[in-house]
């Protein structure tokens, strides 16, 4: 519940409501079917006071218990439809994807900061299709991704070295590894050891993306009419923050792109997605250049913070579930031995480790409410009206924690995906739906798998003891369109002297 909403915001919202009153009245009489059920709407402001500001998937799940698989709320005439089951999401977003593949206009992240030019927030249409195609060619299949496996293997090995040297900085090492892989694949640029300026820039830009796209952190994302409120009035302050973020983002899009062009002129460019797209281009028109530049930025923007929580989850889960760790290590030892690190070629022989990767995707839901879709025309679903322009929110977190689908949903149990009757594959929902399904999923899966296999091959991960006391870490998902983990402590030590030799070996 939104208990802390300020009076100032309510004033701004009242202002905005004037803009939607006429629209709401005009529409009210033209619809036939009812909207899906949901919490009672107040006159004009609708459910403004019900919209959660934090961990919205928890409130959405409470609503699911009361109102069912599909719930509707509206705020000042803007409709939000929440889908609480995989079936509802498949039926609407996959089967009718021609109607449900648009994105809502996110005033702050999209319009002001500029992310609307990336595939993540692009409206459905020509430009969107062109960017998705480029993405698919670059990293959309196991075949295309396999060109980049050596980069993933090298950066993951570097990660092991950093963790060995400074285990308490685990978060920082994971972030760096994810960024290094993406920057290398996208631009052919190898991050310098220490504080690389491109890394700082990329981190600032993606932190801003996560915040500015969280639909309920900035109310303008829910109430577009707030865009008419000047920056100096309550409710308009996001404009100043947005202008600062826009500068950072502009640099992230242009600086590495110009660097690739320069390297290509000098004949020193490493192969990368950007250099390949530029190579294949006969005439670099301003339109084509914009297209390449933004496709590259989408690749970085979509992937930067997303694999990170999954890899960190490995360390938390292993500290909490030592039996799972032992089983995975036994499997890795039996298949690979202790004389080399695991690689992608071992993957098909590691069923338990693969099940562990799936359980990570389920247990810690990285994108708990996906990226929201928007309906391009009116539709009727199960007798309910889904109005044109409604924001469609798949509650992926609940789909992956529904006890009817995954018994003991808060327990970490890779076994659920093994045996004759495995539970549903979390990859069917955790990467989203229809024509908007995550185009980076092959890379994400490859990165998480290799981090798990390599880390488990060489490290023991346990609870930390401090001052004679054992600290049991807690799993908590933080608010954000990409949900990070609440910081926790664990102990990470090499499994043996031979493991240490492997970590120290030359890359
Ligand atoms: C564990 C890792 C990841 C998860 C859980 C994840 C999940 C998602 C989800 C749920 C969506 C929204 C899909 C929808 O709208 O229905 C999405 C979109 C997207 N993801 Fe990922 N993702 C991950 C990693 C990556 C990586 C590594 C990249 C890039 C290399 C990437 C690039 C993108 C892009 C560009 C979009 C926007 C697609 C569009 O709007 O058409 N993601 N992702």
TrEMBL record:
Pathway: Secondary metabolite biosynthesis. Its cofactor is heme. CDD domains: CYP64-like (cd11065). Heme binds at residue 438. InterPro entries: Cyt_P450, Cyt_P450_CS, Cyt_P450_E_grp-I, Cyt_P450_sf, Cytochrome_P450_fung. Keywords: Heme, Iron, Metal-binding, Monooxygenase, Oxidoreductase. One of its GO terms (molecular function) is iron ion binding. The keyword Ion transport does not apply. Signal peptide: none annotated. Belongs to the cytochrome P450 family. This is Cytochrome P450. The lineage of its organism: Eukaryota, Fungi, Dikarya, Basidiomycota, Agaricomycotina.
């Amino acid at each position: 519940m939104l208990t802390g909403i300020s009076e100032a915001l309510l004033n701004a919202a009242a202002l905005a409501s004037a803009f939607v009153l006429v629209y709401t009245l005009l529409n009210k009489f033209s619809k036939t079917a009812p909207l899906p059920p949901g919490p009672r709407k107040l006159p004009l402001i609708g459910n403004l006071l019900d919209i959660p500001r934090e961990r919205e998937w928890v409130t959405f799940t409470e609503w699911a218990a009361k109102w069912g698989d599909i719930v509707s709320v509206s705020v000042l005439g803007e409709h939000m439809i929440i889908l609480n089951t995989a079936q509802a999401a498949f039926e609407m977003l996959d089967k009718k994807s021609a109607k449900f593949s648009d994105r809502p206009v996110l005033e702050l992240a999209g319009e002001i900061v500029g992310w609307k030019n990336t595939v993540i927030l692009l409206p459905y249409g020509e430009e969107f299709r062109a960017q998705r195609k480029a993405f698919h060619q670059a990293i959309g299949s196991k075949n295309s991704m396999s060109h980049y496996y050596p980069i993933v293997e090298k950066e993951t090995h570097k990660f092991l070295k950093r963790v060995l040297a400074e285990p308490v900085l685990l978060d920082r090492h994971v972030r760096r590894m994810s960024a290094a892989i993406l920057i290398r694949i996208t631009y052919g640029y190898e991050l310098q050891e220490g504080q690389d300026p491109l890394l700082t820039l990329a981190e600032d830009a993606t932190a801003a993306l996560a915040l500015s796209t969280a639909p309920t952190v900035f109310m303008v994302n829910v109430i577009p009419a707030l865009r008419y409120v000047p920056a100096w009035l309550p409710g308009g302050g996001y404009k100043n923050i947005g202008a600062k973020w826009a500068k950072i983002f502009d640099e992230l899009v242009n600086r590495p792109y110009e660097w690739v062009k320069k390297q290509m002129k000098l004949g020193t460019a490493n192969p990368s997605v950007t250099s390949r797209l530029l190579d294949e281009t006969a005439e670099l028109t301003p339109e084509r250049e914009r297209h390449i530049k933004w496709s590259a930025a989408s690749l970085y923007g979509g992937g930067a913070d997303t694999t990170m929580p999954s890899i960190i989850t490995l360390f938390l889960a292993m500290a909490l579930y030592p039996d799972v760790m032992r089983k995975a290590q036994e499997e890795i030892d039996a298949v690979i031995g202790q004389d080399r690190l695991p690689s992608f070629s071992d993957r098909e022989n590691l069923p338990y480790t693969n099940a562990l990767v799936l359980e990570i995707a389920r247990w810690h839901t990285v994108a708990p409410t996906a990226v929201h879709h928007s309906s391009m025309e009116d539709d009727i679903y199960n007798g309910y009206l889904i109005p044109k322009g409604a924001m469609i929110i798949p509650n992926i977190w609940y789909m992956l924690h529904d006890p009817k689908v995954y018994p003991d949903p808060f327990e970490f149990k890779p076994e659920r995906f093994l045996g004759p009757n495995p539970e549903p594959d979390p990859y069917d929902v955790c990467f989203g739906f229809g024509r908007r399904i995550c185009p980076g999923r092959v890379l994400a899966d490859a990165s998480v798998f290799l981090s798990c296999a390599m880390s488990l091959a060489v490290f023991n991960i346990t609870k930390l003891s401090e001052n004679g006391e054992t600290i049991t870490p807690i799993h908590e998902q933080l608010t954000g369109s990409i949900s990070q983990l609440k910081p926790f402590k664990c102990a990470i030590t090499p499994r043996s002297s031979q493991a240490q030799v492997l970590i120290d070996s030359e890359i």
